[in-house]
């Protein structure tokens, strides 16, 4: 099926499907596979230890695909924050055309990227933050509903309402629906709500090219929509994770701690342990991101198979809707 949306036109892609900027997953191999299949692949800047490694990953992606791809730069509160301007400098120097920003206080980074003429997609979990990002000059919003893997925000508004609100409130600025999408039916639903395309995180984690342990992919296939846990609400950093022994322990401490000191949960939620899960495949070793959309994921396809299936499902849905609308008008005219 041929798509023509503000997203396909603006980014120069064939299918309006974006691969989420997945920490410890979104390396060159995955991003290039998505871009080669017609979507927008994204590599994750902070998965690289420093500016030089990010430069190499960008060059590697360019060797693997001639199609457009992007870089995700996520700005999260940290005691020792990464050198964000240096990462942005690498992105600009390497001639990347599309960047997805996410997280807090993105103003200075967005300014730096826009001054270099880069198309900036900013991820938001509320309409208020989306509007603030538009004032900062972003080109496209990615609207992340409560179903999503990772940082869900603190408002708990699911994709159906949030994306409809985006259509009502964001004027001409195109937006991508994110959180809870895995197939062509979801894509058509998002387009109906007014989105210009979809962003998928958990679904792309569960593909052949995602460079993570097979046990993690199999755990996603085996799980259903009930197997996620929200952690860190007490510290206003609510995150949706795959439910395992460590999320259970984290919630127990979170609910029962008298002091409310973050240091009590810090060893449980350590990023290093989460990364080890993805590399070694022990799914109960640490916390790792996954969304409710696990309930819709039943296999581990290649990115090309997945995107081609999404095109077919979207085409079939369109045909089915066209058919039922013509039979409805037929029966109306018979009355
Ligand atoms: C393993 C994993 C790592 C993620 N890391 C990031 C990240 O570093 N930055 C970010 O903006 N979003 C991150 N996300 C969120 C995704 O980009 C995307 O917004 C989310 O997965 C969409 O929800 P879905 O999983 O229902 O598709 C991550 C998600 C997963 C599953």
Automatic annotation (TrEMBL):
Organism superkingdom: Eukaryota
Protein name, entry field: Uncharacterized protein
PANTHER family found in the cross-reference section: 2-NITROPROPANE DIOXYGENASE, DIOXYGENASE FAMILY OXIDOREDUCTASE, PUTATIVE (AFU_ORTHOLOGUE AFUA_5G09600)-RELATED
Q: Which CDD domains match?
A: NPD_like
Q: What are the GO MF terms of this UniProt record?
A: nitronate monooxygenase activity
**Which InterPro entries has this protein been placed in?**
Aldolase_TIM (IPR013785), NMO (IPR004136)
| Organism field | Oidiodendron maius (strain Zn)
Q: Does the keyword Flavoprotein apply?
A: yes
Q: Which Gene3D superfamilies does the entry mention?
A: Aldolase class I
Work out whether the entry's keyword set contains Flavoprotein. Answer: yes
The organism's taxonomy opens as: Eukaryota, Fungi, Dikarya, Ascomycota, Pezizomycotina
Q: Which UniProt keywords apply?
A: Flavoprotein, FMN, Oxidoreductase
């Amino acid at each position: 099926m041929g798509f023509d949306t503000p997203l396909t036109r603006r980014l120069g892609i064939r299918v309006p499907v974006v691969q989420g900027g997945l920490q410890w997953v979104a390396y060159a191999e995955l991003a290039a596979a998505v871009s080669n299949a017609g979507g927008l692949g994204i590599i994750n800047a902070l998965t690289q230890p420093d500016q030089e490694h990010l430069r190499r990953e960008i060059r590697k992606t360019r060797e693997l695909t001639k199609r457009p791809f992007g870089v995700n730069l996520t700005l999260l509160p940290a005691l020792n924050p990464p050198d964000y301007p240096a990462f942005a400098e690498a992105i600009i120097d390497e001639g990347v055309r599309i960047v997805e920003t996410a997280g807090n206080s993105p103003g200075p980074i967005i300014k730096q990227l826009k001054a270099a003429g880069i198309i900036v997609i900013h991820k938001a979990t509320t309409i208020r933050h989306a509007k603030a990002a538009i004032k900062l000059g972003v080109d496209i919003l990615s609207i992340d509903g409560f179903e999503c893997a990772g940082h869900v925000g603190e408002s708990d508004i699911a994709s159906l309402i949030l994306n409809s609100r985006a259509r009502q409130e964001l004027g001409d600025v195109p937006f991508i629906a994110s959180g809870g999408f895995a197939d062509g039916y979801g894509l058509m639903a998002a387009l109906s709500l007014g989105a210009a395309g979809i962003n998928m995180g958990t679904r792309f984690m569960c593909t052949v090219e995602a460079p993570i342990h097979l046990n993690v992919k199999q755990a996603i296939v085996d799980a259903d929509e009930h197997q996620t846990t929200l952690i860190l609400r007490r510290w206003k950093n609510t995150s949706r994770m795959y439910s395992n022994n460590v999320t259970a322990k984290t919630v127990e401490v979170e609910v029962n701690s008298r002091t409310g000191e973050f240091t009590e949960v810090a060893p449980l939620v350590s990023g290093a342990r989460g990364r080890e899960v993805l590399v070694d495949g022990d799914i109960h070793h640490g916390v790792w991101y996954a969304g409710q959309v696990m309930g819709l994921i039943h296999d581990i396809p290649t990115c090309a198979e997945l995107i081609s299936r999404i095109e077919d499902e979207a085409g079939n849905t369109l045909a089915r809707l066209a058919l039922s609308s013509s039979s409805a008008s037929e029966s109306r005219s018979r009355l």
